[in-house]
């Protein structure tokens, strides 16, 4: 394989990765990441995690109901709480499902938090803090 073919292959692979990452980040304007986390964490025998699943379902519904800022804030906070409660045990267990859930929670906490703390459409925010 020539050098130019190798560079083309590397460039196209990095473009695909950037595109996939961009799509994942853009999906945080939808309830899909919250609902995906809820489905992944809702499994038999884990009574403590059921509350986190229900909170993600509720946050996803807020986003689905066209309340992106509040739904994103709600999902972000509950994802961060999940990381505080189950992040360290997930890393220590080195099992794929707990690590995947911790990664999803981290993604949701960061990117939904971005929508909450730095909203794009400030005109949709209430004036004077909603008072």
UniProtKB/TrEMBL annotation:
Protein keywords: Membrane, Transmembrane, Transmembrane helix
Transmembrane segments: 68-85, 97-117
Domain of life the protein comes from: Eukaryota
GO cellular component terms given for this protein: mitochondrion
The protein, known as: Uncharacterized protein
Species per Swiss-Prot/TrEMBL record: Magnusiomyces paraingens
